[in-house]
Sequence to fold (306 residues):
Amino acid sequence: MDSVVRALLVYVLLMILFRVAGKRTLAHTTTFDLVLVLIISEAISNVLVGTDYSFTNAALIVTTLILADIGLSLVKRQAPRLEALIDGMPLVLFRDGRPNATHMTWERVGLDDILAAARERQGVSRLEDIEEAVLERSGEISVIPRRKRGAADKG
Amino acid sequence: MWRIQQVAWGLMAVLVVAGLLGFLGSGGLGRRSVIASDGTLEVDYERFLRRGNRTTLLVRMRPAEGAASPALGLRIAQAYLDGMRVESVFPPPRRAQVGPDHVTLDFDVDSPAATLLTLTIQVVPERVGAWQAAIRAGAGAPVGFHQWVYP
Fold:
């Protein structure tokens, strides 16, 4: 009984904490973010498993967590406002050569982060070559390069 | 494929609800109580256990009427002890006697007039499967119950 309750509590706690922390907090942007994720999982695993190392307990906890996730995704499909509350919305950080200062400040994203994403995903190194940069719900920055879109328009 | 997925979700929900109700061990509706036919013994136990996870047997004994000695023996069948490791008995017995198919724990009783004695036995299930327990207090009627141990 308590395994299911504890798994659900942990699920809700982490969902709230990570939502409040913001999209970029643990988006694996630095090595330390990854280390932090590992430490958090270590701390939480004690709460979940306790002293019960049985197969049944592990199966029950994992099933509960996955089922909670499936259930929430089904609910989110029906309630877009709840989805926006839990997952947030994609935010435009940069468009037509102008950064959106409000979005960038609130989400703690700098121009260097946008440039890093542009280099990694598009092989673009200059701000002028970026058509649009969007902070996705996942916390990743997607970049649409200027040249590519221009070429597509011509063709 | 999607049909299989949905069926699997249903099975997962059944599993989680069963766990929530205590049918997979660890509390909930799994606690039961048995009373000997002559009322000398009552045992509170969990029906569903998990291997390696401690459980408590709450034993209440009533000395048979007119019992001469102020001592009380609790007899546990050996078959039950094959699958369970007794971790502690509180209060600790004055002495333990080993028989061919049972273990008897003797307790001193404060006064012969004592009507109800409560013992706590902590047990760790070590093997998966169904275990049949048979316990009796002194010469009273035996109490039997089943415990199922999940892996």
